[in-house]
Design a protein that fits this description.
heterodimer, B: alpha+beta, two-stranded antiparallel ribbon, globular
Chain lengths: 104, 159
């Protein structure tokens, strides 16, 4: 990893088209200004990780995986009973298939 | 009563009052703005966060304290505003907000189930508005294993 020291007000370039300026340093936080072409997506790393995780998680939802997950998580023998976090019903209204939804 | 096709539970009826709005969607699904939360007794404590617009889109959620009973949620002022919660006051989990993590059920991409503790789904129960909050103050894993590793080791020893 390239390490570079910069003060507030100084900047550096990545390639020809991307400029990053250190605008302000306050304690443990640093404010950066970024100039880049529209074609370059700029996002926080955590956002990218979360986006990728959401897509993988959505893809993982299949009947077989859910059964396995239930065996491992929902009925794990060493787990203490978990109280539901909602004290209000998440779903109001009746359902045709009664076992589908549970009221709290 | 309107009905929707769901990814996991077939066709279900839902009450329009049970629809939760995600004004900016969630990362990866920015155009999904309406979800219902479905539960089955057998699946407790897991919940299904089903998209109203896209039958194939369903995420499995787990209440955050079930994934990590010592979890500390910190909402920034921007988060509070997005959720239409009072400023400068952390909401109570279970009373003011629902807080749950997205579970990756395992499968081809990843053998063991994990949960994203870095970015819980937080819902204002009163206003029925939700966002996915990315925690920046704390160092939680986005691939938190849901099965204790030592259990695997035990199983390996037994076999």
């Amino acid at each position: 990893m390239l390490v570079m020291r910069r003060r507030a007000g100084e900047s550096f370039l990545i390639g020809e088209a991307v400029e990053i300026e250190v605008l302000e340093i306050c304690g443990t936080r640093v404010k950066l200004g970024i100039v880049a072409p529209d074609s370059i997506l700029i996002q926080r790393k955590e956002s990218k990780l979360t986006r990728d995780e959401n897509i993988i998680a959505a893809r993982s939802v299949g009947q077989q995986n859910i059964s396995a997950l239930l065996d491992q998580v929902a009925h794990r023998p060493e787990g203490t009973p978990v109280k539901s976090l909602t004290e209000e019903p998440l779903l109001t209204g009746e359902s045709n298939s009664r076992d589908l939804m549970k009221k709290h | 009563m309107p009905r929707i096709q769901t990814r996991c539970l077939g066709e279900v009826e839902y009450s329009p009052e049970a629809v939760y709005t995600f004004p900016i969607g969630i990362p990866g699904f920015e155009n999904e703005h309406a979800f219902v939360f479905l539960e089955r007794p057998r699946s407790h404590p897991l919940m299904f966060m089903q998209s109203l617009a896209t039958p194939e889109l369903c995420l499995i959620l787990m209440p955050i304290l079930a994934a990590d009973r010592h979890y500390k949620l910190h909402l920034t002022e921007e988060d509070l505003e997005a959720l239409q919660l009072p400023a400068r006051k952390q909401p109570r989990i279970g009373k003011d907000i629902l807080c749950a993590v997205v579970v990756c059920a395992g499968g081809q991409d990843r053998p063991d189930p994990t949960a994203n503790l870095l970015a819980p789904i937080v819902v204002n129960l009163k206003q029925q508005i939700g966002i996915q909050v990315i925690q920046t103050k704390v160092n939680y894993s986005y691939r938190h294993p849901l099965i204790a590793r030592n259990r695997h080791e035990e199983l390996a020893l037994c076999s």
